[in-house]
C-alpha cells in the first residue's frame, strides 16, 4: 500500500474526494478542509493499493494539482485494516508488478545527480577495486561492486530515453562522464603513491590471477551486463528492491575502472585498454537492457509525462 496526500485548491477538492471514494483500490480517505497553508487549500489523504496508484496520479495530474497544489506518495510498511485488504484485492493486477511511473521518474531523477556524496562513493569503490586487484582478492572486488553507486544514473538514462526526458538523460550522462574519470584519477594517484612507497610493483599484475575476469572482455561481458540491467530495472519498477544488491555484484563497472587505473600507472597498457573496453561494454549493456525492460512494460503506462523540471535537491 501507498499513502497518498493531496493538497488541493478548494475548487478541485470535490472532484478529488469523489475520485478517491469511488475508486475500488482506495481505502481510508481523510478530508481536512483548509488545512494546507502553503500552498493554501484543502488536504485529502488516502491509502492506495500500489497497482491503483498510477491511474489515480494520472487523474489528479489532469486536474492540474501537481501545479496548483501537491501530490505526494509514501510507502506503507504495515497496514492492519480490512478496508486496506479489500482495496488491494479489488485493484487490478498485482502490487509487485505495478509500476508507478511518476515515482520512478522522481527516484531516478534523485539518483542521477552528480554531487559530493556520489563522487565519494564511486572513488571509494574504485579504490577498493584497486586493492582487490593488487591483492588478488575477489571478495574485495565484490565489496567494491556493492559500494559503487553507478546503477542509479544508468537507470536514469534508460528512463529518460524511454520517456523522452532529455533533461534526465543529460544530467545522468553528465554524472557518469564526470564521476568515472575523476574516480579513476583518484585511484591512479593512490596507485602511484602505493608503488612509490614500495607496497607493490608491476609484477602484481603479471601472470594469472583470480581477478583477471575484470579485463577479460568477451561475449559473456555483454550477456551479464544485459541480464543485470534487466534485473535492475525490474527491481526499480516493482516492489522487489532487494534484487538490486545482486545487480551490483553482477556487473564489472567499478572493478574495470579500478583495474584500468592501476594498469595505466604500472605500464600495463594492453590490460588498461581491455579494462576500459569492459567498462564501456557494461555501461552500455546495462542502459540498453534497462531501456528494453521499460519498453516491454509500455502497456502499463497510464500517466503522461508531466514534464516537471527535475529537482536540484
TrEMBL record:
This is Putative hydrophobic protein (TIGR00271 family). Keywords: Membrane, Transmembrane, Transmembrane helix. The chain crosses the membrane at residues 114-135, 141-162, 174-197, 217-236, 243-267, 279-296.
